[in-house]
Amino acid sequence: MQLMHKLVLFLYRSVAIIALYGILIGVLSYISVLGFYAVNTSWIAPTTINPTDEMSLGVSDKLVTSRNAIATLTLDIERQQMGIATLRTQRTSLAALQPIIKSAISEKRAQDKDSAHRLKDLYAQKNSDNARTTKVLNKVETVESRIDLDLAAGLITQADAAEAEAQLNQEENSLTDGKIEAASLYDTVQDKSAANTDTVETVSKEVDLQSQIATLDMQLKLAQKEIDSDSDQIQQINLATSGASDTPYFRSTLGNSTINLAFVPYDNQKSVSIGAPVYDCYLNFVACRYVGSVKYIFPNEEKLQNPIFKTDMRGFLVQLDLTDQNVAQSKTLFVGNKPLGI
Questions:
Q1: How far apart are CA 188 and CA 116, in angstroms?
Q2: 3-state secondary structure of 100
Q3: Most buried among 122, 237, 238, 285, using CB within 10 Å?
């Protein structure tokens, strides 16, 4: 019994010592790991994404919407450009009529002015002729009395008397016609001297032509503004699309395979470059082996939880070209060189 008691006591002490050293080794290992990651600047945290991830699908939908919007705006620009070409053709045709109408108005006014001047002379001459005829006809009563006396005295025949009276009536009719012609000349002179109906109509056509040209100019400006607005929207969409296309989520939509990524904290960014070798280590940072290289560096900022300290970090993502797909499941990888040289 005493021997059994000593054996049990020895085993108890051995187990206690082993457990104590195990705890000490575990604590020291944990502290060493924490200390290592606190000072090391070459570690990265691997991750993967695939085309069916929520972020990838969201980016894909947004890109499709953006492409449709660009296509719609492009069609609108083409339609506006065709409309502008038509409007410019119409404006050119109308503008070509302006000098013709102005020339016609100027020529018409010159002709009217010349005609008015000549008609005024004719009107004055006609009034002078009518005045002389009036003087002659003022003596008609005396002539008619003499004809009656000569007829009564038998100096002329009845036929001669009738002919003489007819001649007098003809002179009176000529005076009446002359007065009518004078009045007609006066009206014509007034018509040529003032703005007549033909001139007003021609001028109104010129005003209407100018109005049409002004309307076309306004339509051209509005169409150009719409083109500029659509072009600005296309440029903004392209900028947004360009930013979205430079993300791992967009790249995942380009193929059906999983993309290997790694999160790089800003503190470790100096160790990362395209083509830099990537290592996977056993026991966190010993016995490391080459597993690939850095393929691409994404410019956008990302936020992730530190895989060791479980705190939030800011950094960026890189795409990895791995020779062993299983290393993507490791907690951390190292870039540039092996952390302990082994």
A1: 8
A2: helix
A3: 285
